[in-house]
Specification:
By secondary structure, the chain is mainly α. It is 69% helix and 0% strand.
Length: 235
């Protein structure tokens, strides 16, 4: 009885999946970072800093703890990045849409109302509350966010006022001269945005503020423009 031995040829062997070594593509790294930060924001808003855990953040992010620790040293570093990204980066990324209105007052009112409705977002206000509550634990973070938020919002206000007053006679007033515009923009924001922002920090349900925004902005803009014109008249 003869036996035959079947030899497998190289082509008959099952192919092994290729293993890619090295770092993943930049776009994939950025996607993982965003997923981790989004998950961390969700958990921090629900649990607070003390109640949040890297385990839960990893679960929400569908990521391993090792992946998180490879990017962030600890929970403090992750919290710092979340607050910085969601408060400061959002201000820097804000784009002023073309406002409607035939007069400078109507255009400023339209733009400021849009900005406030955008700014009084539940998650954004929630993170601001959290950053304030953790100011003792993160004194540098609280101070940096406050300072940079004012700087970035002032820059936004400068662009807003410069663009919306360019074609109006008010642009010739001293308040809108290039050297005075940062101060004018800060006063504009302090009149229009800060009062509603402070109220939002204490309101549990931000929806109660929505009906009041437009009327508040209209009064603040009228007062602001009257002050600018009155300053020129006194001068």
């Amino acid at each position: 009885m003869s036996t035959s031995i079947l030899k497998k040829t190289p082509s008959s062997r099952p192919k092994r999946a290729e293993v890619r070594l090295g770092r993943p593509p930049k776009e994939l790294i950025g996607e993982v970072d965003e997923r981790i930060l989004d998950a961390a924001r969700t958990v921090f808003l629900q649990r607070g800093f003390e109640g949040a855990s890297i385990d839960e953040i990893a679960e929400v992010a569908r990521s391993g703890k090792r992946t998180i620790y490879a990017r962030f040293e600890d929970k403090r570093a992750l919290f710092t990045e979340v607050v910085t990204r969601d408060i400061l980066a959002r201000i820097a990324e804000y784009k002023v849409e073309a406002p409607t209105g035939a007069t400078v007052e109507e255009r400023l009112t339209s733009a400021a109302s849009t900005m406030l409705h955008w700014g009084l977002d539940t998650d954004r206000i929630g993170l601001m509350r959290l950053a304030i509550a953790e100011a003792r634990r993160f004194p540098d973070l609280a101070a940096t966010v406050n300072r940079r938020a004012r700087e970035l919002s002032t820059e936004l206000g400068v662009h807003l006022l410069r663009d919306l007053t360019r074609s109006d006679e008010i642009a010739t007033l001293p308040a809108f001269a290039p050297e005075n515009l940062p101060t004018t923009a800060r006063l504009f924001l302090d009149l229009v945005a800060v009062p509603m922002l402070l109220r939002a920090l204490y309101e549990v349900d931000l929806k109660v503020l929505d009906p009041e925004i437009d009327a508040h902005v209209a009064r603040a803009v009228a007062f602001f423009l009257a002050g600018c014109r009155n300053g020129e008249a006194r001068r």
